[in-house]
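Request: Have a read of the protein record below and say how the chain folds.
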Amino acid sequence: MDTGLAALVVAFIIAILFVLFAVYLLRNTVNLVQQGFVGVTTRLGEFRAIHEPGLAIIAPFIDKLVAVDMREYPRPGDRQEVITKDNVVVSVNATIFTQVVDAKQALFSIANFDIAIDALARTALRSVIGTLSLDEALSERERINVDVQEQMEAVTDKWGIRINRIEIVEITPPPQILQALALQKQADQEKRAKILQSEGLQQSAVNVADGNRQAAIKNAEGERQSAILRAEGNRQAAILEAEGRAQAIATVYGAITAAAPDPTLVAILQLDTLSKFAASPNTKIVIPAESAALLGAVQAIQSVLAQVPGVEAAASGT
């Protein structure tokens, strides 16, 4: 019975070993490639085939399947010190987005493309930022991204790796440079504020002067229009006054002509006028000669003058 039990134990152990071997054989024969990966098969160390995502069957013991990630992969770079063109040491950090496009080249053309890409990124950053001044490095990040990507793609293309994009995360100058930049920024802001204030004052003065000029023009136009209207009014008044006088003279003349006065009536009218002169406080009266010659009017004039003491009478032409 002891011999039978020993044989049974040996048989059980052999069965377990057989099952384990079968599982190991199955595991090395049937492989599952996940979505986003490809499987690279080598036979006795030599490239054989590339398997797309899904089930991959390989020969056990002689074939080997290596899964390669074909997805885009962000590689956060370590912070490094870089010297700019104007000899300022800045701390730079960048993120590189890479993607394997040729799994065969990525496995067999470079020993470890992860380490190679990191080292290449450091070299490219130093090379690009070394050609820029501090101000350019701080203000032209997009240019740095493009230049670094171009330099890296010239090398990674033969590795079967594509550089999709590069993002500069941070560019930090030394603290004393940051303080100087802050002071410069403050000075620039104060300068702009003073310029804007002076431009505002200038514009205000221009507006005030323009307003005064427009007001002066309007006032001058108003005065001119007023003077024109006054002149027109005076002219119309003078015309109307002259027309009135002309009509009055014409009316008087017409009336006199229609009455047909004789010399006696004229002399009487003249004497009446002279009597009015005599009533005034004048000391001298001038009498027309033709009045003295009418109908013996001299005697009448003398009697009038006799009534006015201290008055001298002079007849023109006598």
Q: What stands out?
A: The chain has a mean pLDDT of 81. The radius of gyration is 64 Å. DSSP finds nine helices and eleven strands in the chain. The longest strand covers residues 89-100.
